[in-house]
Specification:
This protein is 63% helix and 0% strand. It has 8 helices and no strands. The protein is elongated. The protein has a single domain, classed as ADP-ribosylation/Crystallin J1 (ADP-ribosylglycohydrolase fold). By secondary structure, the protein is mostly helical.
């Protein structure tokens, strides 16, 4: 996945990347493992930016199994955003997408119930 991100960045670097991902991409290209590179930013804390959360919606659409969904969401986050808050935000976003698309549209979505269910899912798995 990291090499796909790198290729896409190199093909279209003007797409609005923040300062962190290009640094991560350079580290990976220099031989740093993909799951370690982002941790080297911001004094070793990693970024807790929202780029990973912005790109995670397809994970919530695709994976039915929540354990797999959480694993994939975490891995795609760690590629460029390694801070715990960035990872947790990404997982919450993926779970929210999954929960929304699996809701019974005939009944509608009660916002309070939706948030309570989302909190229940994410507390068990990532927080």
């Amino acid at each position: 996945m990291a090499w796909i991100f790198i290729r896409n960045y190199e093909e279209e670097p003007w797409r609005g990347y923040a300062i962190g991902p290009p640094r991560v991409f350079r580290l990976i290209k220099s031989g740093v493992p993909w799951n370690e590179a982002a941790k080297r930013l911001f004094g070793g804390a990693g970024s807790f930016g929202n780029g990973a959360a912005m790109r995670v919606a397809p994970v919530g659409l695709y994976f039915d199994d929540l354990e797999t969904l959480v694993e994939i969401a975490c891995n795609q986050s760690i590629t460029t955003y390694a801070h715990k808050l960035g990872i947790e935000g990404t997982v919450i976003q993926a779970c929210a997408v999954a929960l929304a698309v699996r809701s019974d549209r005939r009944r509608g979505i009660n916002p309070n119930d939706f948030i309570e269910e989302l909190l229940g899912i994410t507390k068990k798995r990532c927080l």
